[in-house]
Amino acid sequence: MRTLSCLLNIMVAAFFLTACNYNTKSLKQTTAKLPFYLGADFTPQWIEKTDALYQGIHTIPSFDFTDQDGKEITEKIFSGKIYVANFFFCSCPGICKRLTSNLSLVQKAFQDDSMILLLSHSVTPEADNVSRLKEYARSNGVISGKWHLVTGKRNEIYQIARASYFADEDLGEQKGTNDFLHTENILLIDTQKRIRGIYKGTSVKDINDLIADIKKLEAED
């Protein structure tokens, strides 16, 4: 009788051990890939290629801006690349300095990795012309060809910022180009132009998470 009881205990223990291992494995499989972000609420969604939603995942549309070197910057430059996007302005006395400083850590981490680019949009494009962006780039160690500081038409920058990157969004409140855009959010965009991460640019912890997620995304792609 005691032998039977011991045997049953062993079987139960084995069952729970197997279940725990399975659950751990399932959790790792779920979190191994970065989520997708489909809207301004930034709710993470893990969508498999076999899911019906996969083909309709939100993507960043085409754009046409000018960077600190006077070079035309379109979505084609980022085709097949992973990139980090944010919004700033050269005369910003507050968070932009910390944002730029923290993004420099990302640039340094992937300086020799041609798959990774950075894209910073000026939200005061009428003031931040090419020469001013160039000086800002020099002052902050921005590497040409690696990190693009872009200017362009105000309405186009604000449109892509709010409608595509969901920057500075107040849910339910409509904003126009006359409403100033200012956000500390940094976004991670994959090779298919889909949003895969959202980070607080003033937080070193978030920047470290961003660097780790870029490496994870490279392995996924």
Overview of this structure, please?
- By secondary structure, the chain is α+β, with helices and mostly antiparallel strands.
- The chain has two domains: 1-32; 36-220, Glutaredoxin.
- Helices cover 38% and strands 19% of the residues.
- It has five helices and nine strands; from the N terminus they run H-E-E-E-E-E-H-E-H-E-H-E-E-H.
- The protein has helices at residues 2-32, 95-109, 130-139, 154-163, 204-220, and strands spanning 36-37, 44-45, 64-67, 72-74, 82-88, 116-122, 147-151, 185-189, 195-200.
- The strands form two sheets. It has a seven-stranded mixed sheet with strand order 4-3-7-6-5-8-9, sandwiched between helices. The protein has a two-stranded antiparallel ribbon with strand order 1-2.
- The N and C termini lie far apart (57 Å).
- State the end-to-end CA separation: 57 Å
* CATH topology descriptor of the largest domain: Glutaredoxin
Percentage of residues in helical conformation: 25-40%
How much is the average pLDDT? 86
Low-confidence stretches: 10-30, 170-174
Features:
single chain; 221 residues; alpha+beta; Glutaredoxin; two-stranded antiparallel ribbon; 9 strands; 38% helix; 19% strand
What's the topology here?
Layout: H1 2-32, E1 36-37, E2 44-45, E3 64-67, E4 72-74, E5 82-88, H2 95-109, E6 116-122, H3 130-139, E7 147-151, H4 154-163, E8 185-189, E9 195-200, H5 204-220
Parallel strand pairs: 5-6, 6-7
Antiparallel strand pairs: 1-2, 3-4, 3-7, 5-8, 8-9
Helix pairs in contact: 2-5
